[in-house]
Amino acid sequence: MKKEIKIAIAVVLSIWFFVMGFELGIYKERKANVQSGNEVVNTVTPTAQSTTQPTTVPTTVPTTAPTTLPPVVDPNQNSTAPSEAASTEAPANNDPSSLSKAQIVEKINTHMKALKSEQNLQAHKTEKIDVSVVDCSVPAAISLINNIISGIAGTEEADYSFANGTTTAGETVYACITPESKDFYIAEEGVATATATASGTDTVYTIVLVEENTTLTAPVPTHNATTVGYLDIASLDLPSVTIATADMKYPGSTVEITVNADGKITKLVNKIPMSGKIGAKISFFEGDATIEGGQDESWTFTY
Known about the structure:
The protein is α+β, with helices and mostly antiparallel strands.
């Protein structure tokens, strides 16, 4: 089940509980009128929808400061991944921590491009979705809604074996690895912090993206969309449900790659913290839910 569907269920549930509460209120009032001998009229006023304003719970953004020392040469001098700039060649001191933000961004772009072009490799994916409703149209139902969400979210794992570019099911590396069916690319202005560290003979490159916000009319976060993906609520096609609000906040997604001595990525970790308010309509009824949480995704690769 796609992550968008899992989270949209939270919204639909909040509206469903709202509608059920509305109908139950009418039923109880009619029953009370009958028991008291009063005639039932057609002007029953439903209990007003909760006006509790959603509160967006802030997500802590990693505060690792980017290194701004003079550019040096990359330790992966013999990397099989393409290199496009002389500024990323191996330094004499073999210390990746002295790479600048611009150099780290270039390295990640280069290595991810090479990864998505690989033809023969094995991959293991672990994806965890942890999203909860913190406010909705029926506050009393929040606990029940979250129990249902936890039952359909959680952690999923999958294995892929690619030979000559595809699996036996016809899946490709390019289509499976995030961003799915898209080129990976991050501009330097989209990066808040960048670090590079040595881990034995491997090098670990990490970037934290700048904060991005989206709405129903502007649903695509520029930098998240081409690196870690995003929650595409606006394009959902749910039977009898119309998405009315989709205000999302991505306070600082993370991309981390581990590159071995041969210049190949052996591990990819994406983290997407998020929060937002999503509203939808069912028939004549409208409700909303404020969510917080995120998605963690990790890949390991062998060649």
